[in-house]
Amino acid sequence: MAGESDPQPSVTHVASTARVAVGPPRFQFRVWDDIGDAARRLRSLGAPHRVERRRDIYLLGTRSHHNVKVRAQRLEISELLGIVDGFEQWNRAAMHRLPCTTGDARRWLHEVAGVDGEVGLHEPIDERLGRRRLLDAASACGLRPAAVAKHRERFVLGDLRAEATTMVLGDGGIELSCVAFEGPDLPSLVELRRQLDLQQACNLAVPVALERALRTYTG
Fold first, then answer.
1. Rounded to two decimals, what is the model's pTM?
2. Cα separation, 2 vs 127, whole angstroms
């Protein structure tokens, strides 16, 4: 614990509006690319709690403080609340089941991207829309759906959660690897970052890393 004479963590506030959380906010640190040593150190702290495979579709091009993805039959919206000591604090702002109404879809598109949902959605506001139609509407509004296949080792370290993940982006087979850890207790996360020797690493959220990879590999 920091003493009273220690400097206080630097805080950057990002979100401008308050939202009802789905679960408590959490601090997160995620590093990419050459993560072999960090992954080995993470595995040395304990065996994976479970290994899973997922396929998510991220909506790229949203406002910078949003992380939006479609997982199975739901839309998940997370919001960046701020940055403390290099850790991003994320709040799961909403989870919406699909299918949804046209009116709801227009509202979500305006919320996460500031776009006019009617550009891609001409159906009556009470029309029911499935996942495919929602993604088509997002594309018509200027967002870029990015399909990602994940192979993830998940770890439980006390109150903290961590992962070592390989992602394959889209049909082009762009492969990315990351180590991430998150939780509500910032001092414990800072200590884990030290144990993984990631003090100098850059923290990038998933949408930022995906956009960077697409720029690098597809121009």
1. 0.86
2. 55
